[in-house]
Design a protein that fits this description.
The chain has 367 residues and is mostly helical. Helices cover 56% and strands 0% of the residues. The protein has 17 helices and no strands. One of its GO terms (biological process) is lipid biosynthetic process.
Length: 367
């Protein structure tokens, strides 16, 4: 079956585009052969493997917290820096399971959301309700790349100063989240007007400042309540322990620095997850795919900055429900089955550095 797909002529596929050239996204037709192949060749890959999820998450979190403790207790600055780097990378990997939680069917991973929130989400101040109900809008066909997309800004078309501001926001994220949960959460519980603002503006991991979130409904409402309560209790307790001297200010600063490091790496990855070249028009699925990025070339560095399958971000936009551990096999099948004229091959890029250079060059051209 795969070989028959490979022999199809893609009359409706976009013409080849140099990797450095800006792609005209509006009006790009769907590559129907690619979409059909993506559906047909991956039917057996959609079931998440609980053993992989739990083992990966627990090991990542365990290594991360052990390295955080080692950073605090390190006898020298060099050892502290080395342990801190390990803590950032391990907790970064553990934190990215929040992305999987927005797509997986929770009945297939019993208690994983609860376990992740208790072990990772609440301690690093990003409980899953901040992403669930937000990220799925980024995948909505009529929202992607528009003003209604919470996770999209046309960064490639914006001014050069937007990139350092984008990264600075990540540095300040831990402090902002402490304020959100230790101050705004309890105050908004008794002030309805403030609550509406907190829900709309300060309850979602987003990059589009114009996006306003709606109040949660159904199961998410219950999840939101308990997760926000847990994050609020944790944040208040943490600040109280610091204020009373139980937790030394130095140790608290290291904790904030590690979380900030996690946020900065994630922000850098976000910068290269898309080309950010859409000007606000609704796009076809193929155009959305072409505005997204795969970095399939194997390498140790890629596994550090884009773990949990995120180096296949364009493929993820084709198949959002595919578990992270299946993306490599899905990419192999589609690469073998689809000829070079397919749009599938046009979203593959070799390196993080090249993507950052492309984005920076685009912003310089937008001056």
């Amino acid at each position: 079956m795969t070989k028959s797909l490979a022999l199809k002529v893609h009359d409706d596929a976009p013409a080849a585009t140099p990797a450095s050239a800006r792609i005209k996204l509006s009006g790009v037709p769907d590559d129907r052969a690619m979409l059909r192949a993506a559906a047909e060749l991956t039917r057996d890959l959609h079931a998440p493997n609980p053993r992989i999820y739990w083992t990966d998450m627990l090991l990542s979190a365990g290594i991360g917290y052990a390295a955080l403790a080692a950073t605090i207790l390190a006898p020298s600055a060099l050892l502290a820096v080395l342990a801190g780097a390990v803590a950032v990378l391990a907790l970064y990997r553990a934190s990215l399971f929040i992305h999987e939680l927005t797509h997986v069917k929770h009945a297939l991973l019993p208690n994983f959301r609860l376990g992740w929130n208790l072990l990772v989400g609440i301690p690093i101040l990003v409980p899953s309700f901040t992403y669930e109900g937000v990220h799925n809008l980024h995948h909505a066909r009529t929202r992607y790349g528009t003003v209604e997309d919470p996770e999209y800004l046309p960064l490639a078309l914006m001014k050069p100063w937007t990139l350092p501001v984008f990264l600075l926001a990540a540095v300040l994220m831990p402090v902002a989240m402490l304020v959100r949960f230790a101050v705004l959460a309890p105050l908004s519980a008794v002030l309805p007007k403030l609550r509406r603002v907190v829900v709309a503006k300060y309850s979602g991991l987003k990059i589009n400042p114009a996006f306003e979130r709606r109040a949660p409904e159904g199961e998410l409402r219950s999840q939101w309540f308990w997760q926000e309560l847990g994050a609020s209790v944790f944040s208040i307790a943490l600040l109280a322990l610091v204020a009373t001297g139980v937790i030394p200010l130095r140790d608290f600063g290291i904790y904030l620095a590690v979380i900030a490091g996690v946020a900065v790496i994630n922000q850098v990855r976000t910068l290269v997850a898309h080309l950010w070249e859409n000007d606000g028009e609704p796009l076809t699925v193929t155009a959305q795919y072409l505005d997204s990025v795969n970095v399939p070339t194997p390498g140790f560095f890629a596994y550090l900055w884009a773990p949990i399958g995120l180096r296949y971000h364009a493929l993820h936009h084709l198949l959002p429900s595919l578990p992270y551990h299946a993306l490599n096999e899905a990419h192999r099948r589609l690469s073998d089955a689809l000829e070079e004229a397919s749009a599938y091959h046009k979203a593959n890029y070799p390196t993080l550095r090249g993507l950052m250079h492309r984005l920076a060059a685009s912003t310089m051209g937008a001056r």
